[in-house]
What we know:
The protein is mainly α. The chain has two domains: 1-188, Growth Hormone, Chain: A, CATH 1.20.1250; 209-408, Up-down Bundle (Growth Hormone, Chain: A), CATH 1.20.1250. The protein is 82% helix and 0% strand. Helix 4 runs antiparallel to helix 8 (167-186), helix 7 (135-160) crosses helix 15 and helix 13 packs antiparallel against helix 15. The longest helix is centred in the first third of the chain and has 33 residues, at 44-76. The radius of gyration is 21 Å and the shape is globular. Residues 1-6 have low confidence and may be disordered.
Amino acid sequence: MVMSLKLTTTLVFVLLVVVLDTAGFGLIFPVLPQLLKNLVHADTSTAARYGGWLSFAYAAMQFVFAPLLGNLSDRYGRRPVLLVSLLGFSVDCLFLAFSGHILWIFIGRILAGISGASYSVAAATVADISTEENRTRNFGLINAAFGLGFIVGPAIGGVLAQFGTSFPFVVAAILSFLNFSLGLLFFKESLKTQHRRRFSWQQANPLAAMKSINKVVLLRMLLLSIVFVTLANHSMETVWAYFTIEKFHWNQQMIGYSLAFIGGLSVLVQAWLLGLLSKRVKDHQLAIIGLCLTISGFILLAFAQSQWLLFVALFIFILGSLQGTALQSIAAASVPENEQGALQGILGAIMGLTTMVGPLTFSFVFSYTTAQKTGFYFPGAAFVLAAILTVGSLLLLFFSFGKRKKQI
């Protein structure tokens, strides 16, 4: 009974860390464009290009350093790595708040990318404290916390922006430092001493770590499946606003309503529906169902001719987000306890890699298929590409399951 209470307390704290961290991250979204316009003395289009390169710099650092921090957490525990991550983000926010030159913004984003392991370490902590019966539910809760932070953060950031472009960054720094302080005082180490392992530079290298995965066919196919669907999901964040403006002439208010709908429903799916289904449906079945729903959602989004059908497509797409948590749970169950940090580091590297490639790819596809001089006009082309990538993810998953059955 005491152990059960301890695990519940740890999970609640991890969820709080994720909510506060992502809310602090989301605070900066509404005001970053204006901050960049002020710094580079340029129009929105030029500021957007700088914003894209800032995202690229952050993602590149995530790709390189997420496996390193994941492996360090397997050696020294989750607590010190998580605390360094939270402190690093706080420093990044101070750079954003008080910088007078674009160079310092890039330095801040690079530092945040290097130390930005809060979600990966939090996920490794959840794997540490979970059993086979509640692992999927717990990963669903942490993903719901992640989504909740991104709903609350931008909303608060928009309100705080009336006090100046620097003020939301100061609040984000305070939130992150509060997170750090709570972790310092209350977060207990979840990785037992007997489950720690020696640090390996080979596994800490993202390319070498992914190469070593090739030796394990089941995990290799599973991670490739995750790469494909993660890449596909970047289509939404990249072209959604541009797509709805181009095809349905939406204004900023309508786009905001749709993002609130996406965020709210995502939290409901991850926090409630997933926990309900995980008691009755196995992880591999949830993954297959979720991928099929995701494919259907992308196709409907691409060809929707009315707004009501667009929201139906969104509803189906968000239900499909079940697959992400199920795949994460399957991956966590595929490695021993002393390699959970390494696994989450690789998943963080995958997120960084797809964040570098995905937005550039989908923005190019959208731009090319909507340009006036292009003979082929199709605003939904990016979503068709996303659907094709998700089909690839589903096929890789079936291949992984087939290999698993042969080994059994």
